[in-house]
């Protein structure tokens, strides 16, 4: 039976036949570029660092350094000369935590979980040397390096990179960007295209809509708003607001904030 939920925020990734679409839908600009400069919109897509509940974009702290990876929507990045706030600078970024030793990829990271990938480009900046390792995985656990030397520049400043040739995939894929530099690395925006997803659904008016029939999903899980797993039994949940995460056979993942009323 289909359920009718009050939609508060949706990240929907459902099948589309041979249609190339932008991952972020109307949350991106007309060219499909999604910028990390709006807290409300980014919260729909980006998990907090090392969070239990994983969204499309997940943040991870540095392994080797005592530094955190974080979303900073008000951060003013460096311009073309590597100095914050100068010509060419962009406001808003995910700041990836540094590593201890340059070119040692144990710094912070950002992971993108995608049903497939036809295009992936991003804007990076740093006040020191830019060094980003690119890794991919078919299961989100076992990683393969796709970049030797990767996105390495002995130069500071702001640059755009198209890494499609490294990460293109017709099946589900996880893409990880790791900071291999000894200073923070900023991702200001990304552009991702796919053939098996449609744009995010976000009417923004509080109205109820009918989502996919959860009975057709391979798995359905429920979480608190802070990411605590509550299992898969909807009927056992008390009245309240939760995150429902549904996973489908084609690799699509649908994460929805739902409200359950008292009986």
What does this entry look like structurally?
The radius of gyration is 19 Å and the shape is globular. It has two helices and 20 strands. It is mainly beta and 263 residues long. It has helices spanning 39-45, 164-167, and strands at residues 4-6, 10-11, 21-22, 33-35, 57-60, 70-76, 91-96, 109-114, 119-126, 130-137, 144-145, 151-153, 157-162, 173-179, 185-194, 208-210, 219-223, 229-231, 240-247, 253-260. The strands form four sheets. Strands 3, 4, 6, 7, 9, 13 and 15 form a seven-stranded antiparallel beta sheet that branches. Strands 5, 8, 10, 11, 12 and 14 form a six-stranded antiparallel beta sheet that branches.
């Amino acid at each position: 039976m289909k359920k009718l939920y009050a939609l508060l925020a949706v990240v929907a990734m459902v099948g589309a036949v041979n249609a190339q679409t932008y991952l972020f839908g109307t949350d991106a600009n007309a060219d499909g570029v999604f910028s990390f400069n709006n807290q409300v919109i980014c919260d729909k897509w980006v998990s907090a660092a090392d969070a239990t509940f994983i969204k499309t974009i997940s943040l991870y702290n540095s392994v080797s350094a005592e530094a955190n990876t974080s979303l900073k929507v008000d951060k003013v990045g460096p311009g073309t000369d590597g100095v914050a706030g100068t010509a060419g600078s962009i406001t808003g970024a995910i700041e990836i935590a540094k590593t201890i030793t340059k070119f040692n990829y144990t710094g912070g990271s950002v992971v993108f979980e995608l049903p497939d990938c036809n295009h992936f480009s991003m804007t990076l900046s740093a006040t020191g040397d830019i060094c980003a390792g690119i890794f991919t995985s078919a299961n989100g656990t076992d990683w393969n390096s796709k970049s030797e030397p990767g996105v390495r520049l002995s130069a500071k400043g702001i640059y755009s990179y198209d890494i499609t040739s490294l990460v293109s995939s017709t099946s589900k894929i996880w893409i990880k960007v790791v900071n291999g530099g000894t200073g923070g690395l900023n991702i200001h925006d990304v552009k991702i295209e796919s053939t098996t997803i449609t744009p995010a659904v976000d009417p923004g008016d509080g109205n109820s809509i009918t989502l996919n029939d959860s009975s057709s999903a391979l798995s359905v899980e429920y979480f608190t708003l802070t990411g605590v797993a509550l299992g898969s039994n909807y009927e056992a949940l008390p009245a309240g607001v939760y995150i429902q995460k549904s996973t489908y056979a084609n690799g699509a993942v649908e994460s929805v904030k739902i409200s359950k009323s008292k009986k």
